[in-house]
Amino acid sequence: MNARDAILARVRTALRDVPRDETPADVEVPRPPAPVLPDRVELFAERVADYKATVVRCTPAELPERLAEALHGVARLLVPTDLPAELHPAGPELVEDTPLPVTALDAVDGVLTTARLGIAETGTIVLDHGPGQGRRAATLVPDLHVCVVRTDQVVTGVPDAVAALDPHRPQTWISGPSATSDIELDRVEGVHGPRTLRVLLVG
Amino acid sequence: MSELASESSTRRSARSAEVAPRAAAGGATFLGTPAFPIAAKAALADAQLRRNLAHATGTIRGKRAAVVAEVANWEELRLAGAALKDRTLRHLDTYLTQLETALTKAGATVHWARDAAEANRIVVDIARGHGTDEVVKVKSMATVEIGLNEALADAGITAWETDLAELIVQLGHDLPSHILVPAIHRNRSEVREIFLREMGRAGRPAPPDLTDNPADLAAAAREHLREKFLRAKVAVSGANFAVAETGTLAVVESEGNGRMCLTLPEVLISVVGIEKLVPTWADLDVFLQLLPRSSTGERMNPYTSMWSGVTPGDGPQEVHVVLLDNGRTDVLADEVGRQALRCIRCSACLNVCPVYERTGGHSYGSVYPGPIGAILTPMLRGVGHDEQVDSLPYASSLCGACFEVCPVRIDIPEVLVHLRSQVVDAHRGRPSLQGAAMKAASWMFGTSARTAAAEKLSGLGSRVLDRTVRRRAPGGRRALGSLPWPVSAWSDARDTPVPPPESFRAWWSRTDGGRR
Fold first, then answer.
1. How many helices (H) and strands (E) does chain B have?
2. What is the secondary structure of A21-43 as a DSSP string?
3. Rounded to the nearest 5 degrees, what angle is found at the Cα of B176, between the Cα atoms of B389 and B365?
4. A173-202 residues touching B, CB cutoff 8 A
5. C-alpha angle B403/B428/B378, rounded to 5°?
6. Which of B62, B347, B36 minimizes the C-alpha distance to B182?
7. How near does any CA of chain B get to the CA of A165, in Å?
8. How many CB atoms lie within 10 A of CB B279?
9. Which residue positions in chain A have pLDDT lower than 70?
10. What residues 254-293 of chain B have any CB closer than 8 A to a CB of chain A?
C-alpha cells in the first residue's frame, strides 16, 4: 500500500467511534459575533502606531507632500511597475521592479506600495500583491516600506478581512515592522524584514 | 573554557553531555535524556536557568493576559476554535483528500509520509534533485520532531535555521526548550557569547565589538543570515494552518525570516502535520484571532504569509507539501487523547505551568515540552516501552492552569490522568515496589488492631525524628528530605512530612474527645 492510502486507512480506523452517517456539518461550531467598534479608522491609526510604525493621516490633496516627508533621505526607491502614477513621488530615483534580481532589491533604500486593506482591531495591513502592491519579495528585502492605505479600505476586525480576501491569492499580513522577542522576551524591532514601516492613511 | 561554556555544560548534564543533541528514531523525543524526575532535579539546581525562565514566562503571561482581556468574546472564540478542530479531526480523511485536490490544482506537488524516515527521505530527495548542499529553514516543530536537520546533514546538506531563537539553539549546539521561543533558557550575555564564538564558523562572523543589547544581537543575526537568504535555492517550512477547501497554507511569524524563506528560493518544501488542517478559508479568522494573542501576547504577529501552490512570477515556482503522519493517527485513535491534535502550538500552556517554569523545557526530553508535550509525546511515541516517555504524564501537578489558558480548550489534566492509567496498565504484571507497598498497607489497615499498632510505632518514630529533623515544608511542618532506597523512589522528588507524634484516635481516647 502506498503512503497516501496507508495514512487514509489509518485515519479511518482511528475514527471508528465516529458514526458512519455523521457529516462535518453535524459537528456544531458556535460562531462568535464580529466585534463592533466606534471609529475604525482612528483605531487603525492608533494600533498601527502601537506597533512602532509611523502613521500619518492626510487628505488626497496633501498626499504628495506627506509622501515626500515619508521618503526623506531615500535616494533610490523601488516601485511596482503598476503603482498608480499619482503616487509617484518627486525626488527619489524610481526603480521599477521589472522584476529585478533579489540582489538588486537589496540595493535600494526603500519601497513604496499600496495595500489591499487594513484591519483596525489589530493594526494590520494586508497585501494580496495585486495592482500597486508588488510581488512578495519587493516589500521584504528593502529596509524601509512606505505603504499608502485609503481610509475606505480599513475594516473593523479579522473576520471582516478574511471575508473580503481571495484565498487563492498569495497574502502578506503586516503588523508593524519586523520584530523579535527571542532574547529574554524583550521586543526588538527589525530583524529580517523592513526595519521601518511608514503608513500614509489617506482620506 | 569560558564561563558560559562551563555553565551550559552544567545545564546539559540534565541529559548525557556526550550525546550530541538529536531527535530519537521515530521522533518526538531527544536521545540520551533521562526520565523527567532525574532531569528535573538537575534543572532545579540551576539558579541561572530558573532566573531566565521566571523572567521570560512572567513577562509573556502579563502580555497575554492584557491582550486577551481586550477581546470581549474570547470565551466564544475558544469554543469556536475547539469545535472547528473537532469537526476537522472527526472527518480528517475527507479534509485530507480535499486539501490534496486543492493543492494539486494550485500547482503544488503533494507527498504523503507515514513516519519520520519517509518524510526525511522525501525532503532529501527533492533537495538532492536540485543539486544543492544547503537549505534555509523556517522554524517548524514538525521538522524538529522528525529530525530533518540531522537527516539532511547525513546526506551532506546543511540546514540553516533562520528564526533567531532557532539560530541561537543551532549555533549553541543546544536543544530547543520552548515551542515558541526555543532559546528561552538563554539570557542575552549567553547569546552574545554564542554569536561571537560560532557565527564565523557558519558564515559571516559577528562583529568583534558585539554587545549583549538585544537590538545589536538581532542586527548581527540579520547580517549573518541575509547572505544565506539571498543565495538559497531551496527552503523548508512547516505550516501553522492548511485550508482544505482552498489549499492555502499559512505561516505565522515575527521576524521576516519566514517571508524570506517562503518567497526568495526557487523551491519550497513544506512539511505539514495532518492535524494542521482547517476546513474552510472562513474558519481561519477564528484561529488568526486566537493564535497571536495566546502565543506572543500580541494583537497580531508582525507577519503572516499565506499561499496556495505556485503563483506565476511571484515566489517559488516549485512547491512541495509533505503531509506527515508520524504517530498522529495513533493520537487520533485515542478517544480521550484525540483533543491533543487540536493544538495550534501557541505555547500558552508552557508559560503558565508551575512545573515548566521551574524545570525548563529540556527536562521533558521532548520536542514538545511543557504540558502539551507531556500528553502529545507519549501518544505519538506510545507508552510502555521507554521509561523517559512514560515519565512525562507524571510531569505535572494537575493544577489545571494549562486548560484554563488553552485557546482550543484541550483538557490537558484529563488526558494526563488518562495516560497515567495507560502507563500503569502497560507495566501491569511486572512486580513493582508500589504494588508491594500497597499490599503491605492493605494488610496493615485490614484490622483496627494492626492500624493502632502502626500508629503507635509511627508516633514513636515521629518523636525521635522531631529532635533531629530541621527541614521545614511550606506551611512550617517538619519534613524529611531524601530517604534511603527503596523509599528514595518516592522521596527523591518529594518532601515526606514527619508523621504527627500522636494519632487522632489516640488523642481522642486520651482526652475523651477533647473534654479532658
1. 24, 12
2. T--GGGS----PPPP--S-HHHH
3. 15
4. 173-186, 188, 190-194
5. 35
6. B347
7. 9
8. 22
9. none
10. 254-257, 259-260, 262-264, 274, 279, 281-282, 284-286, 288-289, 292
Instruction: Flag whether residue A170 sits within 8 Å of chain B, measured between CB atoms.
Output: yes
Q: What torsion, rounded to 10 degrees, do the Cα atoms A202, A161, B236, B214 define?
A: 60
Higher pLDDT, A202 or B12: A202
Respond yes or no on whether ipTM tops 0.90.
Answer: yes
Cβ atoms B327, B381 nearer than 8 A = yes
Q: Which three cell numbers stand for residue B417?
A: 490522568
Q: Which amino acid is at B298?
A: E
Please say if the pLDDT value at position B504 is more than 50: yes
Residue among A27, A135, A162 whose CB faces B282 most closely: A162
| DSSP E strands, B124-266 | 134-137, 158-161, 234-237, 241-243, 248-253
3-state secondary structure of A93: strand
Collapsing DSSP to helix, strand or coil, B435 comes out as helix
Q: To probe the interface with A, which of B57, B139, B222, B331 has the most A CB atoms within 10 Å?
A: B222
Contacting residues for B434 by C-beta, under 8 A, at least 6 apart: none
Tell me the pLDDT tens digit for each residue of B291-337: 999 999 999 999 999 999 999 999 999 999 999 999 999 999 999 99
Q: Which residues lie below 8 Å from residue B201, measured CB to CB, with a gap of 6+?
A: none
Q: What cell does B131 get?
A: 543539486
Q: Which of B278, B250, B281, B247 minimizes the C-alpha distance to B92?
A: B278
Per the model's pLDDT, the better-predicted residue between B409 and B442 turns out to be: B409
Place of cell 539560530: B167
Distance between CA atoms of residues B294 and B145, nearest Å = 22
| B residues 344-403 lying closer than 8 A (beta carbon) to A | none
Q: Which residues of A touch B333 (CB under 8 A)?
A: 13-14
Q: Choose, out of A26, A127, A181, A197, the residue to mutate when testing the contact with B (most B CBs < 10 Å).
A: A181
**Chain A 32-91, CB below 8 Å of chain B: which residues?**
32-33, 35, 47, 51
- Which residues in chain B are contacts of A119 at CB distance < 8 A? 300
Instruction: Give the model's pLDDT for residue B21.
Output: 57
Which of B55, B164, B248 minimises the CB distance to A167? Answer: B248
Tell whether omega for the bond before B486 is within 30 degrees of 0, i.e. cis: yes
CB B332 within 8 Å of CB B338: yes
- Grid cell, residue B277, equals 488542517
Task: Please state, in angstroms and as integers, the Cα–Cα distance from residue B181 to each residue in B164, B203, B250, following that order.
Answer: 9, 23, 19
pTM of the model: 0.89
Count of CB contacts below 8 A, A vs B? Answer: 249
Amino acid at B273: G
DSSP 8-state symbol, B496: E
Helices first, then strands: H and E counts in chain A: 5, 12
Cβ separation of A122 and B299 shorter than 8 Å?
Answer: yes
Instruction: Please tell me the distance in Å from A126's CA to the nearest CA on chain B.
Output: 9
DSSP state of A60: G
Q: Is the dihedral of CA A69, A74, A76, A78 positive or negative?
A: negative
CA B392 to CA B337: how far, in whole Å?
14
Q: Chain A residue closest to B337 (CA)?
A: A14
CB < 8 Å to A44, chain B: none
Is A110 touching B (CB cutoff 8 A)? no
